[in-house]
Design brief:
The complex is a heterodimer of chains A (243) and B (616).
Chain A (H helix, E strand, L loop, with lengths): L1 H9 L12 H5 L3 H5 L3 H4 L4 H67 L1 H10 L10 E2 L6 E2 L34 H16 L6 H15 L7 H4 L17
Chain B lengths: L7 H40 L1 H12 E6 L6 E2 L5 E13 L7 E5 L6 E5 H12 L3 H8 L11 E7 L1 H9 L5 E10 L7 H4 L1 E3 L3 H4 L3 E4 H5 L1 H5 L3 E6 L12 E4 L6 E4 L3 H18 L3 E8 L4 E7 L19 H4 L9 H11 L7 E4 L2 E4 L2 E4 L7 E4 H7 L2 H8 L4 H11 L26 H4 L10 H12 L3 E2 L5 E5 L5 E3 L6 E2 L3 H16 L14 E10 L5 E12 L6 E8 L11 H14 L26
Parallel strand pairs in B: 2-12
Antiparallel strand pairs in B: 1-10, 2-3, 3-6, 3-7, 4-5, 8-9, 10-11, 12-20, 13-14, 13-25, 15-18, 16-17, 19-22, 20-21, 23-24, 24-25
Helix pairs in contact in B: 3-4, 10-19, 12-15, 12-18, 13-18
The chains are: A mainly alpha (243), B alpha+beta (616).
């Protein structure tokens, strides 16, 4: 740029080739007569290189700073994308853990819901098959049928084999490290909840939570996230999943 | 240069030639290298640059299949009958097994060295197995030839898998797969069917092998997707690089018309009956007559879909649709309905019914010896006399009866999505002389229990035939329901015939052979049947005892058919009416059917005032 500016100034003489680059030397012998009338015009030219010399350093600095800024921003962007990727992996892991936990719980519910299991539990509670029913027509108030009381001997049969309970936790043979610890305080916790003294309750709940955490890969959730349940409600994730 | 100084003049003389040689040699080497590099550059970039770029990309690209989630099978109330759960196989690559391995301590996060035996002991505790069997799977028997793929444990739960992977054994990896889970054990097992790993090697996914799991495969299976991405040398995905994801389309859920509670109650009842008479099998069909919805198809021997191999092949499908038998007296329903519809008989028409009746040189006998009785047509039906039935039936031609039987659905396939037996019913041209009479009382043709249910349902449901069906709706993964369209009810017999037949069926329960089927508070109608069971080697070698009944008989809503095949012991003791009663009571209870408010109105069984005659 600076050179170009100088050239443009040199263009004013009628023989620009004589002072241009390496050819300027060759032109010297013939030049003076022509150049002499132009001599007064050269005075301002000497200022230009000086100005150029002054601007050179800040300009390089500017270039470097732009380059550095670009590199830095690329770095930051890369780091962000990479950390977004890690966050994505972590969130996927959480999702998977929760889905699997949910699946295990659903399996338990389905097992308990199986009619054989319901019937067996009802029997255990002393329930029997009902007798004849009567019904009231709410429109007319008329009763149809004669209700008879159930008798003790009409218990349900259990011919159909009960389904195998789904495997929960780790196999029983495990050393008392995680699962028994997880199961036992759970009962202790619920017993504490009904305990009128209530003094032990927080400790019991705390132990339960700690045991649960120890037992599984379950991420820790705050009370607010759980909102009284065992699985946090779906949350709105930020737009930073980095996909 | 240093060694040339002693002989300056010689050196200067030789210098140019040596220098030139060296220069030329160097130049030649450089040129050769440049040609080599240039050639290679041309080869790589000039000839087929795309292929090389592609090869590089292929090297980075990794495609993972995304397995679709197989749809659930649900009962009519949305309870899960079959679902898929995630399970893991633990596999060891013995090449990476080391005597001592390092891992991060779970508690304080420090690095610790663990001996292989200790690691295996920890794994044994997690899996609940003994360490020896694990050692055999993990440590190579021959160190020179380590197994690259050795199963350590199959089908472990995610919880166990997480605990096992935490131990950090080198070379131990887990592979995820989907496992079918049937939470109700053998309840509805023959309906649901089961999966087979037969073509698993090909697709990596188990597919249906029996029952609805097989017939609904196209709905349940879904379509696999895939995920393609670039991976760096360290195995981590390269962010911002190519990512192509074709999502898997999950399978549809199939909701059945089966009610799990009734299904279970029916299975309990038929199992008790099977045990009582040591029968080959006992089955039951419960049907919503208005809609044709099948509420239960119960078998005394019911396969547990989790372990189909434990059940005899015959009982891996439902006998209610696969086992055809000669129905016996329940077949009289079709004969009487046809005769009433054709107008050749009325319910109260009088007949003199002997113990033995000979027609066209064929003698028809009743099972219980009785005196000749003056009876009504309804009475013949109620007491289930073969002789009287032939007297009524012979008023129709063979062709007429054949056409009517066809209309009721005898001998035609019932497609409810299960493998089914259409039974054997040959046209009259193929009947022998005796067959034309025995078909009147349910012998010499075969049908399944579901056929019986369909015939009773048609005649009871005001003469309207509704096809029985098992599948209620298909549910998309997003919850959109696609109900299976109900077939239009088809009129087979008139309302009047249906009403007369219903009264005749009620007479059976009030005065006839099925007094044990009465349910307190409800008007019940039905028909018993005891047919001879054909031996596989020819002739008859057993019996099939059945009862089909409907409630409330004035406007029937529910039908239950109980069939017992080859019971042991004295035939007079055989009865399945109590089984009917217990299943029907469960149905009435489940659907809150109010007790009947109208009085029973059976026909007179005998002509005249005397209505009580001895059975033998």
């Amino acid at each position: 740029m600076a050179v170009q500016t100088a050239e443009r100034v040199h263009e004013r003489p009628q023989h620009p080739a004589m002072v241009d680059g390496s050819a300027a030397l060759a032109a010297v012998p013939t030049a003076p007569p022509v150049a002499a009338p132009e001599a007064p015009a050269r005075t301002p030219l000497s200022i230009v290189p000086a100005a150029v010399r002054n601007r050179r350093m800040p300009f390089i600095a500017l270039c470097f700073s732009v380059l550095l800024a670009a590199l830095a921003s690329v770095l930051v962007l890369n780091v962000q994308v990479a950390s977004g990727q890690y966050e994505l992996v972590a969130l996927r892991g959480t999702e998977q853990t929760l889905a699997q936990e949910n699946e295990a719980l659903a399996q338990q519910v389905q097992n308990l819901e199986a009619p054989q299991n319901l019937a067996a539990r009802a029997s255990k509670l002393g329930m029997v098959v009902p007798g004849a029913v009567a019904s009231i027509d709410l429109g007319t108030g008329k009763v149809s049928g004669v209700a008879t009381p159930a008798t003790e001997d009409t218990t349900v049969t259990s011919n159909v084999a009960r389904p195998e309970a789904p495997q929960t936790g780790l196999p029983k043979a495990k050393a008392p490290a995680s699962v028994p610890a997880a199961a036992a305080p759970e009962h202790a916790g619920s017993a504490d909840a009904t305990d009128p003294s209530g003094a032990e309750a927080p400790a019991g709940a705390g132990a339960e939570a700690a045991a649960r955490e120890e037992a599984s890969d379950r991420p820790a959730f705050t009370e607010a996230e759980l909102n009284g349940g065992s699985i946090p409600a779906p949350a709105q994730q930020g737009a930073d999943s980095g996909e | 240069m240093a060694r040339t100084t002693p002989r300056g003049s010689v050196k200067t003389a030789q210098d140019p030639s040596t220098g030139t040689r060296r220069l030329r040699a160097g130049l030649a080497i450089v040129l050769a290298l440049m040609v080599l590099v240039g050639g290679r550059l041309f080869f790589v970039q000039g000839l087929d640059p795309q292929a090389y770029a592609q090869a590089a990309l292929d090297n980075r690209l990794k495609t993972q299949p995304i397995a679709p989630v197989r749809g659930d099978i649900l009962d009519s109330q949305g309870r899960v009958l079959a679902t898929s759960v995630v399970r893991y196989d633990l596999v060891a690559d013995q090449k990476f097994v080391k005597d001592v391995f390092a891992r991060k301590n779970a508690e304080d996060g420090t690095r610790e060295e663990v001996a292989l035996e200790d690691g295996i002991a920890e794994l044994a505790a997690v899996l609940g197995r003994d360490a020896d069997s694990l050692t055999a799977a993990i440590v190579p028997a021959d160190p020179a030839k380590p197994k690259r793929y050795s199963y350590v444990a199959k089908g472990v739960t995610p919880e166990v898998r997480n605990a096992a992977m935490k131990i950090g054994l080198p070379g131990l990896v887990s592979e995820q797969h989907s496992e079918r889970n049937y939470p109700n054990g053998s309840v509805a097992g023959p309906i649901i069917g089961f999966l087979s790993a037969e073509n698993k090697a090909e697709t990596g996914i188990e597919s249906g092998a029996e029952g609805l799991e097989l017939s609904q495969e196209s709905h349940l299976a879904g379509t696999a997707g895939s995920r393609t991405f670039e991976v760096g040398a360290d195995g981590v995905r390269i962010p911002m690089a190519t990512l192509e994801e074709i999502p898997a389309v999950d399978g549809q859920d199939v909701r059945l018309t089966i009610n799990n509670d009734i299904q279970w109650a029916a299975q309990e009842a038929v199992m008790a009956k099977r045990n009582q008479f040591n029968a080959q099998w006992v089955n039951a069909v419960a049907l919503d007559m208005k809609t044709g919805r099948i509420l239960a198809l119960a078998d005394s021997t019911s396969v547990d879909p989790s372990d189909p191999g434990a059940t005899d092949a015959q009982f891996r499908t439902s006998t209610t649709v696969t086992q055809a038998f000669e129905p016996g007296s329940t077949g009289k329903l079709a004969t009487f309905a046809a005769a009433l519809e054709e107008g050749v008989v009325t319910p109260e028409e009088e007949f003199s019914v002997p113990n033995s009746y000979t027609v066209q040189k064929e003698t028809i006998n009743d099972s219980l010896k009785h005196a000749t009785y003056p009876m009504t047509a309804a009475g013949i039906f109620a007491r289930s006399y073969n002789t009287g039935t032939v007297m009524v039936g012979e008023r129709l031609t063979n062709e007429q009866r054949y056409e009517w039987f066809k209309k009721f659905g005898i001998g035609s396939k019932l497609d409810i999505g299960l493998p089914s037996n259409k039974g054997i019913f040959v046209p009259p041209a193929a009947w022998d002389r005796r067959q034309q009479f025995t078909t009147m009382f349910g012998q010499a043709y075969t049908q399944t229990a579901l056929h019986t249910a369909k015939i009773f349902s048609t005649i009871g449901n005001h003469g309207l035939q509704v096809e029985p069906r098992l599948i209620d709706a298909y549910i998309d993964p997003d919850g959109t329901e696609h109900p299976v369209e109900e077939a239009e009810p088809r009129r087979v017999v008139s309302e009047e015939t249906s009403e007369q037949m219903r009264r005749m069926m009620e007479t059976v329960v009030l005065e006839g052979t099925a007094q044990g089927a009465a349910i307190e508070g409800y008007r019940v109608g039905g028909k018993t049947g005891t047919g001879q069971a054909a031996s596989p080697t020819g002739g008859y070698d057993g019996h099939t005892s059945s009862f089909a009944g409907m409630v409330p008989i004035d406007d029937p809503q529910y039908l239950v058919v109980v069939t017992m095949h080859r019971p042991q012991g004295n035939w007079r003791s055989w009865g399945v009416q109590d089984t009917f009663k217990s299943i029907m009571s469960q149905v009435l209870n489940t659907y809150n059917v109010p007790p009947s408010t109208t009085e029973p109105e059976g026909y007179k069984v005998f002509v005249g005032d005397q209505q009580k005659y001895s059975w033998e």
